[in-house]
């Protein structure tokens, strides 16, 4: 898994899954480009701290993944992109007749279209370098569905389709494209929702996790950001050179049901 010295661009990576993936790549010796839509001192400080912790170069580049031109500019500003991890995403829950149009448009733009624009900008860079990896963070909802999540499910299904096309267009080159499909992951955002869910269902923490949050996850355990990052590092390794155009589920058996 020697990816030391490679540059990894990770969208939506100043927290949660994206930041966890960044740490795993940095542990493996890769240089990191963090990204989100904000441009705060703490964003840049986060990248600096990550770089110092792992002894690699880490930068933060602001780009709004809802804007096609900024998606493409992210790759240009990065200067190089050996490994692209399309992770940025948002969520909204509502029935189809009540789903706000602006929420639909935002989810499709950030969760799906951004991956198209960054990939379109990154592939020429990878081809010039003679090597590349595109890793799209999809979801169990890219392979199955749940009610009230029409935009998210549509976007994640679209990401998997884009992954397959990217793989076919690069099949004769040393470039691969794959999608990682997490189930429920214990991120700070999910952690913050647990107390309110406990109150709503009048359940203790363990019961809420098993019977509500992880109802569809047979393992009854959250996936971790470290596990997702490790999967991405593996997909970037020589061992995965012939793994392309497919999905890897990290969902505790969800999609086996």
TrEMBL record:
Name assigned to this protein: 3-hydroxybutyrate dehydrogenase
Pfam families, per database record: adh_short
Transmembrane portions of the chain: none
NCBIfam families in UniProt: PHB_DH, PRK12429.1
Domain of life: Bacteria
Family the UniProt entry places it in: Belongs to the short-chain dehydrogenases/reductases (SDR) family.
């Amino acid at each position: 898994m020697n990816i030391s010295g490679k540059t990894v661009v990770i969208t939506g990576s100043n927290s949660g899954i994206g930041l966890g993936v960044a740490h795993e790549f940095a542990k493996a010796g890769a240089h990191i480009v963090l990204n989100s839509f904000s441009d705060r001192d703490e964003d840049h400080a986060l990248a600096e701290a990550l770089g110092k912790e792992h002894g690699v170069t880490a930068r933060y580049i602001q780009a709004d993944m809802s804007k096609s031109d900024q998606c493409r500019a992210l790759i240009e500003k990065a200067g190089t992109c050996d490994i692209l991890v399309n992770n940025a995403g948002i969520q909204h829950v509502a029935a189809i007749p009540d789903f706000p149009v602006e929420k639909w448009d935002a989810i499709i733009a950030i969760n799906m279209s951004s991956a198209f624009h960054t990939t379109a900008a990154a592939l020429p860079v990878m081809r010039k370098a003679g090597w590349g990896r595109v890793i799209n963070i999809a979801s169990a909802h890219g392979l199955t569905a749940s009610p009230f999540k029409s935009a998210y499910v549509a976007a994640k299904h679209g990401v998997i389709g884009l992954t397959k096309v990217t793989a076919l267009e690069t099949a004769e080159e040393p470039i691969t494209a794959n999608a990682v499909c997490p189930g429920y992951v214990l991120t700070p955002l999910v952690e913050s929702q647990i107390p309110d869910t406990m109150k709503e269902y009048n359940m203790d923490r363990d019961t809420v996790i098993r019977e509500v949050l992880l109802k569809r996850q047979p393992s009854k355990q959250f996936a971790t950001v470290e596990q997702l990052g490790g999967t991405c590092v593996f997909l970037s390794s020589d061992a995965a050179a012939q793994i392309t155009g497919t999905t890897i589920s990290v969902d505790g058996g969800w999609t086996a049901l």
